[in-house]
Amino acid sequence: MTNGLLTKKIEEFQKIDIEDARNYIGASSIGSPCWRQIWYQFKNVKAERVPTKMRRTWAIGKALEELVHDWLYDVGIIIWRNHPELVHPTMPFFKGNVDGIWVKSLLNHTPIAILEIKTAKDSSFNIFAKKGVKDWNSQYYAQIQAYMGLSGIYNTYILVLNKDNSDLGDELVTFDEEFYKQLCEKAQMISKAITPPPKINSSPLWYQCKMCKFNKVCHI
Predict the structure, then answer these.
(1) Considering Cα of 177, then 182, then 186, then 192, what sign does the dihedral take?
(2) Which one of 10, 13, 107, 113 has the largest count of C-beta atoms within 10 Å of its C-beta?
(3) Measuring CA to CA, how many Å separate 14 from each of 11, 39, 50, 168, 172?
């Protein structure tokens, strides 16, 4: 039987809450079907701490994204990874940060396309491979459209890594101006809301609610 000494030390350290407040409406969240969730985040409402295990899962995803960047570099695809934050010109609270921009060279940052990297388990990856990002994950699709609208770069490659078997898949997504306008209208309405928007469901056990960090705040 293991004594768990190293595990205990890691767990204790990772219990420290180092999450930064995000008092803006991000491109990564604007596609959430729950307007109330976006509003809580925008208003910097105190949320439950994300479980340590979930945070480790996110960290693994970020580490895998770094590996994918290395693979792209190996085949000669240059990704500008320090692109400035994207900010809407008249709604400074609506903004986002891209994973990277595929550019012509290290010296010539003329954009070819935005790059968005995701990781997924096998069952989820297969949906992406068969149906594309729009039907796979509407929030990711909205995120990509927001990036394109905010940046003026109207092509995005989403590259997805299967965490279970290391399969790769990518899709070129083009800009949908009307869809982006709807996202901007959504951000504007949420920012102007004085009180929380309606709940997405009245039950705290609803599948979209039970994993939300605002669950206890929302379902009092």
Answers:
(1) positive
(2) 113
(3) 5, 27, 11, 31, 37
| Residue 110 to residues 78, 81, 104, Cα–Cα distance (Å) | 11, 13, 6
Asked whether the predicted pLDDT for residue 19 surpasses 80, the reply is: no
Residue 147 counted as domain residue? yes
Which structural domain range is residue 132 located in? 13-218
Q: Is the pTM of this model over 0.70?
A: yes
Q: Is residue 4 part of a domain?
A: no
Scan for tokens 């949320």, then name that residue. 47
pLDDT digits (tens, 9 = 90+) for 44-74: 998 887 778 888 888 899 999 999 999 999 9
What is the number of domains present in the chain? 1
The whole-angstrom separation of Cα 159 and Cα 23 is: 28
Residue 48 sits at φ, ψ, to 5 deg, of -65, 150
